[in-house]
């Protein structure tokens, strides 16, 4: 493989910038879950309409995963990241201008289009700048931004929504995003030379979606990621509303309690990356499969919890277990796919997660309406997804070397 000349700390600067950008991305995505309570009151919308609004972002986001990854593989990650960050910040500001149900759906859809290229291009940046045995921990640090924003967002949102309102909150977040875009422009760099040879041979590889789609493991990871993110986004999008409407909390109480699972998962997410870099090949899928079953079990306990304290305890356990599974799935392709197609591969896998993000909030909204305000059927659906994830991980038996060789053979 070609060696890239870079300073000793170059990869850490890249990771710090990716982390900062993804913190903003998660803040932008999470805040709508809290703002939606006020938005639906102001615009007079039902639970089904609320679910459609929450899902509209994920449709746009999912659409851009594969094109965003392909562009990063073709043109480099820096250009794609800069465009993605700036454009989604603009649409965050536009969210504050929404005046109707349809305008809000359109803005959130375009917001998803803008943000959709960031994750696959960030994955490529990690694959290029970090050696194989450090990629899980690098990815876990990037993914831990979701846990950190899971702490900050409910606390900040709960207070801000009661003081300045949801429109002003989106204006402020969008302005911060534009400032971070300029920071990225000056400090986010890309090596002058990209690796052009496979880790398992001397043939040059051409970035190709066909290469990705011919790799069985990628389809397995797609299903697993779809399933675990159906759980993640089902909880993220509806727990604020559930805790206010069903558990009887006000926005400030809800914000503080919602931060507890996120605080715990910050540390467990990072630790999971270090652990996955040390777990022997094949053992990770077994552990992940067991964790999937445990997610199903504790989702059941959440639904039947007799107190808010036990509910939050079970939610914290679910968040920790799901975080490990998510890190396992998305870092696996970083270690098995050639660097010239890794952004396309992760874009395809992440499409599964975003399709789950599109479908799950909307389905929960319909289920809640159909059951007269009960969330039991929604929890049953999430339990089913966690079982599917567990089964998919258990039957993933392909070795990393075999996958890389297969992907290389499939390249033109």
UniProtKB/TrEMBL annotation:
The chain crosses the membrane at residues 12-36, 48-68, 80-99, 105-126, 138-157, 169-188, 217-235, 255-274, 286-302, 308-330, 342-368, 374-395. Keywords: Membrane, Transmembrane, Transmembrane helix, Transport. It is a multi-pass membrane protein. It is found in: Cell membrane. Pfam families: MFS_1 (PF07690). Residues 14-401 form the Major facilitator superfamily (MFS) profile domain. This is MFS transporter. The lineage of its organism: Bacteria, Bacillati, Bacillota, Bacilli, Bacillales.
């Amino acid at each position: 493989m070609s060696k890239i000349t870079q300073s000793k700390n170059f990869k850490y600067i890249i990771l710090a910038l990716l982390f900062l950008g993804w913190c903003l991305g998660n803040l932008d995505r999470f805040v709508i879950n809290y703002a939606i309570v006020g938005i639906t009151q102001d615009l007079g919308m039902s639970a089904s309409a609320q679910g459609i609004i929450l899902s509209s972002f994920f449709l746009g986001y999912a659409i851009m995963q594969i094109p965003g990854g392909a562009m990063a593989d073709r043109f480099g990650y820096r250009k794609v990241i800069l465009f993605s960050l700036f454009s989604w910040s603009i649409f965050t500001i536009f969210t504050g201008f929404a005046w109707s149900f349809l305008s809000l759906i359109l803005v959130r859809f375009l917001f998803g289009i803008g943000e959709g290229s960031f994750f696959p291009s960030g994955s490529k940046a990690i694959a290029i700048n970090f050696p194989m045995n450090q990629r899980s921990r690098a990815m876990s640090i990037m993914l831990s931004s979701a846990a950190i924003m899971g702490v900050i967002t409910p606390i900040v949102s709960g207070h801000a929504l009661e003081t300045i309102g949801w429109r002003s909150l989106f204006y402020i977040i969008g302005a911060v995003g534009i400032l971070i875009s300029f920071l990225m422009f000056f400090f986010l760099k890309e090596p002058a030379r990209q690796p052009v040879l496979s880790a398992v041979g001397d043939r040059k590889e051409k970035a190709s979606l066909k290469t990705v789609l011919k790799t069985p493991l990628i389809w397995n990871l797609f299903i697993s990621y779809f399933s675990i993110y159906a759980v993640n986004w089902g909880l993220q999008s509806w727990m604020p509303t559930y805790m206010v409407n069903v558990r009887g909390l006000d926005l400030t109480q809800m914000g503080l309690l919602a931060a507890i699972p996120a605080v715990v998962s910050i540390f467990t997410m990072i630790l999971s990356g270090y652990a996955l870099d040390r777990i022997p090949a094949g053992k990770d899928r077994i552990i992940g499969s067991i964790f999937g079953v445990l997610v199903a079990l504790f989702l059941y306990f959440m639904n039947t919890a007799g107190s808010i304290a036990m509910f939050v305890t079970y939610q914290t356990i679910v968040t920790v277990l799901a975080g490990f599974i998510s890190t396992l799935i998305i870092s696996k392709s970083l270690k098995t796919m050639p660097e010239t197609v890794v952004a396309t591969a992760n874009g395809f896998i992440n499409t599964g997660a975003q399709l789950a993000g599109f479908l799950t909030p909307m389905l929960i909204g319909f289920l809640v309406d159909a059951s007269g305000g009960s969330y039991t059927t929604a929890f049953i659906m999430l339990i089913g997804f966690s079982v599917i994830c567990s089964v998919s991980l258990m039957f993933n038996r392909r070795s990393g070397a075999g996958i890389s060789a297969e992907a290389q053979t499939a390249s033109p």
